[in-house]
Design goal:
The chain is an alpha+beta fold. It folds into two domains: about 160 residues, Ribosomal Protein S5, domain 2; about 120 residues, Alpha-Beta Plaits (2-Layer Sandwich). The protein is about 25% helix and about 30% strand. It has eight helices and twelve strands. Strand 8 and strand 9 form a beta hairpin. The two termini are about 20 Å apart.
Length: about 300
């Protein structure tokens, strides 16, 4: 019997444990290297099948742009598959926007995975990944289903196993535009990519790079090359980093957005309390656990 609806589909956010700018293509796109880790801060989607071909979205939270990545993902899959069905998408937006946590890309990936089942397509993962790359740079990661080393402009994924971890994540009120950060003269660049294998406990085997940079990678898992530019453009990023540094002894911006995170421990319990009531007005935050796999990872072959 054909499915009529799928409810409560998670779209988890991600953190960049580091983000290195390692080059630039002839077309102007920057070449990156990062490790993406899934976390349990997630949006929630509900998909209801339509017998016509219409695609529609309703927002339970703040209104989003009329043609967001969810609708784009549905449209791309509908056109590529020749499916005559449509969908009503209800989006409960819980991951803050403009944070660099991949919320919109994750929503698109959950839409692809959900419609693959709701429309009875049963496409394998590789076929969905080919569509994902055309929707947005981070969408392939979420469709891939695993924590991963991400390279190129986001299209090259190498699955990686990470030890379970806790992260304190803070999103200040301000948002950042990716184009502004990449155009900044304060944008940093890493001298060369590192090779990442196995667990991050002993993950780095750097190539021939300056000794000081090797030590930094081994001690702190690299850096976010966009952070200096972001802090110059938006003082709240620096404030959020200092707020977490004072409480957890470490902090780092994730992605190209304004969210900042701190490693808060491993195991069953975090190493320190995270009192969100003490955040400045307009800021949001929560204590997050890493995920070993995307909750819908098995929805593609």
């Amino acid at each position: 019997m054909a499915l009529r609806a799928l409810y409560d589909l998670p779209a988890p956010a991600k953190l960049n444990l580091f983000l290195h700018v390692v080059g630039r293509r002839a077309d102007g796109y920057h070449l990156l290297q990062s490790v993406f880790v899934l976390i349990d801060w997630a949006d929630v989607l509900h998909l209801e099948r339509r017998s016509d071909s219409a695609l529609a979205r309703r927002d339970l939270g703040p209104a989003l742009p009329a043609d967001d990545l969810c609708l784009r993902a549905a449209r791309v899959l509908q056109q590529a598959s020749g499916c005559g069905l449509g969908v009503d998408i209800t989006l409960d937006k819980r991951v803050p926007t403009g944070a660099g946590m991949g919320g919109g890309s994750s929503d698109a990936a959950t839409t692809l995975l959900g419609l693959n089942r709701l429309w009875g397509l049963h496409w394998p993962r590789q076929r969905l990944l080919a569509l994902a790359a055309a929707i947005g740079a981070d969408v392939p990661f979420f469709v891939g289903g695993s924590n991963a080393v991400v390279e190129g402009i986001g299209e090259r994924l190498t699955p990686i196993e990470l030890n379970p971890a806790w992260f304190a994540v803070v999103k200040p009120q301000a948002e950042l535009a990716t184009a502004t950060i990449f155009a900044s003269p304060r944008l940093q660049r890493s001298p060369e990519a590192v090779i990442v294998t196995g667990s991050l406990a002993d993950a780095f085997a750097p190539r021939s790079v300056p000794a000081g940079w090797v030590a930094q990678v081994l001690a702190g898992h690299g850096r976010n090359d966009l952070q200096a530019a972001a802090e110059e453009h938006c003082s709240e990023v620096a404030q959020a980093a200092a707020w977490l540094q004072a409480r957890f002894g470490n902090s780092r911006m994730t992605g190209s957005g304004s969210a900042v995170f701190a490693r808060a421990g491993t195991g069953d319990q975090p190493e320190a309390a995270f009192v969100t009531e003490s955040l400045p007005s307009g800021w949001v935050g929560r204590l997050c656990r890493s995920l070993a796999r995307h909750p819908l990872a098995d929805w593609a072959g």
